[in-house]
Amino acid sequence: MTDTVLPGSGHDIPAGCREARWPLDNLTLAGLTWHTDPSHEVRSPILMVHGWLDNAMTFARLAPALASDASVHAIDMAGHGHSGHRPPGYGYWLMDYVADLSELIDHHFPESERYPLDLVGHSLGGIVCALYAAAFPERVRRLVMIDSLGALSRPAKETIPQLRRALQKKRNGSAPPAVYPDVATAARIREGGLSPLSAEAAALLVPRNMRAEGAGFVWRTDARLRHPTPLMMTEEQVHASLAAIQTPTLFVRASEGLLASRGGLDKRAELIPDLTTVDVPGGHHCHLDGDTTPVAHAIKRFLFNE
């Protein structure tokens, strides 16, 4: 891993952390690193993985609370934030994110073979972390999923319609990128997204996903992130993946999050052998928006037995 300060990017870097780069075989992942006090270096590092269309800044409020006890590394997933994009002709499959995380850990956190690390994931990031933990339980000490409890699923009968939609979208391509006069305008639009954010939270999250182009700004995130995936897991496959998690796991359930009214979650939760569930106030971004203290306290207790 290399810590760097990117030219012209200092406006979106929180105090107390640095930009990081983790080269992989086919692209480079970027992120933010909060280093702990040297006396705590004996603790396992924490890797944090954000949700769909977000970036490492989604942990700007949570990471400092955890960095008092361990080094924290928040990752921009491929196609997001300052990380590289998939090559032309490729898409963003769920299992490719898991492969990226596996390669990242193998190449840049090899000590996890002897001293397992901690994973904290929000939304899609929680799904990715859970799949990795299920496949490599010996590398993960503890797993935290924020408003996330297994992959989205589709019945087997929807396999071909899903494939058709994905192939049609790949053939048609993405619309030209929207150009905004300034980052603040893009942030205001993001406030009303699928998972709404306050003005303060959007102002923290959005700048890292923007880049200057001409006289305005466009999304830095890869437009292909919005393309339908060709193949989704069935609920039976999701159940099997959750049942395979041997790692002690914390499910942080937001009272007004995307999972608050979704059916079938009790069955999913019952499948994880060592699961603790904590209910916290707030919406889908309960770790970033509003009062994040309950989320931070719950995760600190779980990770550090406080």
Question: What would you note in describing this structure?
Answer:
With 306 residues, the chain is an alpha/beta fold. It has helices spanning 62-67, 94-108, 124-135, 159-172, 183-190, 199-205, 235-243, 265-271, 293-304; strands at residues 2-4, 18-23, 28-34, 46-49, 72-76, 117-122, 140-146, 210-213, 216-219, 249-256, 275-283. The strands form two sheets. It has a nine-stranded mixed β-sheet, sandwiched between helices. The protein has a two-stranded antiparallel sheet with strand order 8-9. Strand 10, helix 8 and strand 11 (275-283) form a beta-alpha-beta unit. Helix 2 packs across helix 3 and helix 5 crosses helix 6. The radius of gyration is 19 Å and the shape is globular. 41% of the residues are buried.
Question: What is the element layout, followed by pairings?
Answer:
Elements lengths: L1 E3 L13 E6 L4 E7 L11 E4 L12 H6 L4 E5 L17 H15 L8 E6 L1 H12 L4 E7 L12 H14 L10 H8 L8 H7 L4 E4 L2 E4 L15 H9 L5 E8 L8 H7 L3 E9 L9 H12 L2
Parallel strand pairs: 4-5, 4-6, 6-7, 7-10, 10-11
Antiparallel strand pairs: 1-2, 2-3, 3-5, 8-9
Helix pairs in contact: 2-3, 5-6
Main traits of this protein?
alpha/beta; Alpha/beta hydrolase; nine-stranded mixed beta sheet; 21% strand; 9 helices; two-stranded antiparallel ribbon; AB_hydrolase_fold; AB_hydrolase_1; disordered N terminus; 29% helix; 306 residues
**Straight-line distance between termini:** 30 Å
Number of strands: 11
What gross morphology would you assign?
globular
Please list the strands of the largest sheet in the order they lie side by side: 1-2-3-5-4-6-7-10-11
